[in-house]
């Protein structure tokens, strides 16, 4: 009888020992899988309260950047807030609501006179940002401009500089901005190691005023090449868009990216999901 009891106890101890070893090994496998899953998970957008202004190009409408805004809302957990329409007389028509606790808020800027000059658009942007600071207590902004909207934003940052009457511009995205004119196929406007071989009046003025650009600014400059031999997006030469590297040579961070193919056409750049992705990364994921 004692032998039977001893045998049963021995078997019980062995069973418990094997169970412990199996459970430990299984936990290690599970922990390893969890760790791998965490490593494989893509970076999530940072949730920040700094709003991003979207400025359309020449003859643009609410639809010009409207699609991009909607997609960024879905993909990057951003929040569309205000729509600010600048009337032809310079008055502002503001719709929507702004919550200072919202994450990655998006503000769409529309010009009623959508074919006006860079000078006028710059003045209107100054009025918009002053209003955002005084009425909404917004002290920091990001901005994105397509085509002429990008040109006007470059002029805006040079005109306002570090003036504390305006919110601090932290990040600027340019998409297909003709910073050195629209001379497609003209070799005289190609880039050299020190800048464009030929400077437009607009570009020359940007270079003269570049010292006013805050050193803390970060810029992401996007250009398009349809790959049809024109070295352009169909409207803006690659060399003109990428001449921005010389305007922003002294800032905290300057990045540029060239997209190619049919989806890199001028009016397709802001409809391109790959452009959405890099814009979202620059604004909300990267630390600059």
UniProtKB/TrEMBL annotation:
Database matches in Gene3D superfamilies: alpha/beta hydrolase
For this protein, the record's InterPro entries field holds:
AB_hydrolase_fold, DUF915_hydro-like
Entry-linked Pfam families:
DUF915
The protein's name: Alpha/beta hydrolase
Q: Provide the species name.
A: Listeria fleischmannii FSL S10-1203
């Amino acid at each position: 009888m004692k032998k039977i009891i001893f045998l049963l106890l021995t078997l019980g101890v062995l069973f418990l020992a094997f169970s412990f070893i199996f459970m430990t090994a299984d936990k290690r496998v599970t922990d390893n899988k969890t760790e791998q899953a965490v490593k494989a998970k893509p970076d999530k957008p940072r949730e920040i309260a700094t709003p991003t202004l979207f400025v359309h190009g020449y003859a643009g409408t609410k639809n010009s950047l409207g699609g991009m805004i909607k997609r960024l809302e879905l993909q990057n957990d951003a929040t569309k807030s205000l729509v600010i329409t600048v009337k032809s007389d310079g008055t502002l028509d503001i719709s929507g609501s702004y919550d200072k606790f919202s994450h990655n808020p998006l503000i769409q800027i529309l010009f009623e006179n959508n074919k006006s000059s860079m000078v006028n658009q710059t003045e209107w942007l100054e009025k918009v940002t002053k209003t955002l600071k005084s009425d909404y207590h917004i002290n920091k902004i990001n901005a994105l401009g397509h085509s002429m909207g990008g040109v006007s934003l470059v002029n805006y940052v040079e005109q306002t500089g570090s003036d504390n009457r305006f919110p601090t511009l932290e990040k600027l995205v340019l998409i297909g901005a003709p910073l050195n004119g629209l001379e497609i196929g003209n070799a005289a406007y190609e880039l050299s190691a020190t800048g464009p071989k030929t400077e437009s009046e607009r570009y020359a003025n940007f270079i003269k005023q570049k010292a006013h650009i805050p050193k803390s600014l970060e810029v992401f400059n996007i250009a398009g090449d349809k790959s049809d031999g024109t070295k352009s997006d169909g409207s803006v030469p690659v060399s003109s868009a990428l001449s921005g590297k010389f305007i922003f040579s002294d800032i905290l961070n300057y990045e540029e990216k060239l997209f190619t193919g049919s989806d890199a056409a001028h009016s397709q750049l802001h409809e391109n999901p790959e452009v959405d992705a890099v814009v979202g990364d620059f604004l909300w994921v990267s630390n600059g």
